[in-house]
């Protein structure tokens, strides 16, 4: 920053006002910098010949970008110019902005999706594959920013050297981007939706929402970052490992907590977190409804968090389905003292799509036997009997090319690493076994940390998924 000449700083200041990046109008920009900016009085004239004042204004704008949208503005400007020049030189304006921008959708899937995804000729041009491949290669070489390329195609950003005039309808631009992203964001490995996209839509309705092009770019980046984490199996595995490293066991194994006298929670520890059983008591009918959640407690930025998975959601990934927005609930957790000195946990939902009615739990001195004695004559039932399953640790051998899981009858399932590359990261410390879904009559080989689930219910399933049954380990 300090090495910039006066002319270089003036050029950057001109760019800020010309492209309307931070502020939608020159009037808004003028109010922010305390200098009347207009077509005849550009921002570069601020401070006259005083380089220090000009640099101070530009640094203030950079700090604003960092605080407002967590963007390195100097880097952003450089990438903007590079991408705009690439867009113009390769005449992408005649290829990408087609009806419904199908080419841009395919471009996102190709660059941010699974490596196995095929690139479709969505633009209706024979050379679209070559163009998309070129964009991806240029992106990997850090010669272009794909997000800026797509925003140029969607007319959400002007070309770097052509930007003129105030932004006409910035809220419409936000809606255009989010509507455009609905289709490609459904194509990922975990969710049938994008949580960040959903949060951005909600954010647009808040009173403190201050839309501008910098925030639009930041939203786009956050949504695609989330998409990448939910699409790439490698990234998923890395995220799982990171979460496991943050895992804590602040709730005692076998402890019983209650929200009220008719709502009890039983926590039991397992290797990767908790099994949490909720007992909802109906005293009038002498009936108990049980719900069993998978849970994990972890630290995030010095905050204690608890994530609970709906029992129906726990089976979606093993059965080859995507999670729904009501499958996972995450809370910030605060430990407090109750009026009688008892230990309490207070829960604040992290997601705006809050669905689990959990606000506070009070620790009891009860054991599971005490709970059973208290309601021993009550009828109990699992609210979701179809979600009952057993998992048997079955990893028998790891060889150079295969993993072997015991079938339980003396033979083995042989799974090729070449078919599932992440299996090369499996160790005997991992949860790797056979998931038996009795309700569905399905048997799944589950490698939990790697997020790999292989259906071996029938010989046909085994053949389709590359699994062999063998009597020996070779």
Describe this entry's structure for a reader.
The protein has 474 residues and is an alpha+beta fold. Helices cover 35% and strands 23% of the residues. The protein contains 14 helices and 18 strands. The chain has an 8-stranded antiparallel barrel. Strands 11-15-16-17 form a 4-stranded antiparallel sheet, with no helix packed on it. β13 and β14 form a beta hairpin. The longest helix is centred in the N-terminal third of the chain and has 19 residues. The radius of gyration is 28 Å and the shape is globular. The relative contact order is 0.07. About 1% of the residues have low confidence.
Explain the layout of strands and helices.
Elements: H1 6-19, H2 26-33, H3 51-69, H4 73-89, H5 102-112, H6 128-140, H7 146-153, H8 170-185, H9 195-203, H10 213-231, H11 233-245, E1 247-248, E2 255-260, E3 263-270, E4 273-282, E5 287-300, E6 303-309, H12 311-314, E7 328-337, E8 343-349, E9 360-363, H13 368-374, E10 379-382, E11 390-393, E12 395-398, E13 402-406, E14 412-416, E15 432-437, E16 442-447, E17 452-455, H14 459-464, E18 468-470
Parallel strand pairs: 5-10
Antiparallel strand pairs: 1-5, 2-3, 2-9, 3-4, 4-5, 5-6, 6-7, 7-8, 8-9, 11-15, 12-13, 13-14, 14-18, 15-16, 16-17
Helix pairs in contact: 1-3, 4-7, 5-8, 8-10, 9-10, 10-11
